[in-house]
Amino acid sequence: MSDSRFPAGFLWGGALAANQCEGAYREGGKGLATVDMLPHGPHRMPVKLGLEKRYTLRGDEFYPSHDAIDFYHRYREDIALMAEMGFTVFRTSIAWSRIYPKGDETAPNQAGIDFYRDLFLECRKYGIEPLVTLSHFDVPMHLVIEYGSWRDRRMVTFFTRYARTCFEAFNGLVKYWLTFNEINILLHSPFSGAGLVFEAGENPEQIKYQAAHHELVASALATKIAHEVNPGNQVGCMLAGGNFYPYTCKPEDVWAALEKDRENLFFIDVQARGAYPAYAARVFREKGVSIVMEEGDAAILRRHSVDFVSFSYYASRCAAADMDEHNTSAANVVKSLKNPHIAASEWGWGIDPLGLRITMNMMYDRYQKPLFLVENGLGARDEINENGEIIDDYRIGYLREHISALADAIEDGVPVMGYIMWGCIDLVSASTGEMSKRYGLVYVDRDDNGKGTLARSRKKSFYWYKKVIVSNGGDLA
């Protein structure tokens, strides 16, 4: 076994999200959620962006989340596969509408609590630590229709009630929590990120940043509740990470990159530092935004900052003063110029392991709190060869290089809690709704149209990652 650059007790694992894996979208008393309204095909992006109102399901469209990979019924099989790889942590999310089907009830749905209790007990059986996200791109549709989702202050009450229910119901089974997944995506994909739909004549920036304020207050209050329920609970925020590089050394491009970084880091600045950053005042003024705050909000944010900062990292980004819809990539909702110095995935996402190290150093310099990389992976098309094998060396190469960059960041002095690769089992792509954009170490027999047996099979990367974990990152060969 090679010497490891990772500390003892470092957490290794993989991640799934309820909205991309569970399926069973109306079973067990579950209510409809925003993700259930996202179709596969040309209407997906307009709905995600809040530009096309979709409050009812259509009979002529396919909705990938409705069945997904049927984790709801197959979780025991899937967790056994995770245990075989040696996972010490499994990141998943709770579907809010399984616990509160409409979102504004005063009593939870016991069937939903029972499902997640069984799921977490199954993790514990194998010594796997659950890391649980409370809101991972799903809001009960009733809250969208009745209240306009996070634009309404009452959402803070509904969310904190839901959070308390989870903290109390799963006390002793879950100690690592995240409040909102990739909270900054609210700015880029408002409906899928926060259930926001815009009406004619509205200032979308006002709606988005007011919703963001409500989420930030709700996150701080949830952190407070988690610590009250069990002082051993650790609560983190979650950023869609990846620095913006200036496209050139032209000062205007450098400034554009700084502004883009601030746009994404704004939420974490509040959650980790406990106050709105100084630069926000000018941003709001120039966007015509006036945040309505209640008395006590500033104190809530100040007193209940997060315990750690978690983030996803897939790619770095490039910014320039003259970037617009004509010269930026359509590959991701976070727009970027194409970086000519790095390779890209089939879906146009830049592959930049050093960018991970850069991002981590920047974030620790900024926040001085432990970091947790909770999503990192490569979406690719996998082919089954004549021997029934999936030789995904491209994925192994991507993971190897990023884990090595993570080790470099640790040597730089950055404290890191763990590494969680995204999509440990193939699941529905959040961006495109495809199954063919595969991230997993385990292959799932399902195609983009929902056809297939759902049978699971191990890829070459499955065995490679098992070796990485048993060596605590010492053997990346």
Question: Short description, anyone?
Answer:
This protein has 477 residues and is an alpha/beta fold.
Describe what you observe in this structure.
With 477 residues, the chain is an alpha/beta fold. 38% of the residues lie in helices and 13% in strands. The protein is built from 15 helices and 14 strands. It has helices spanning 18-21, 44-48, 71-85, 96-99, 110-125, 141-147, 154-169, 190-194, 204-229, 251-273, 280-287, 297-303, 353-367, 393-411, 460-470; strands at 11-15, 89-93, 129-135, 176-180, 234-240, 244-246, 308-312, 317-319, 343-344, 350-351, 371-375, 416-422, 442-444, 456-458. The strands form 4 sheets. Strands 1-2-3-4-5-7-11-12 form an 8-stranded parallel barrel, surrounded by 5 helices. The protein has a two-stranded parallel sheet with strand order 6-8. Strands 9-10 form a two-stranded antiparallel ribbon. The relative contact order is 0.14.
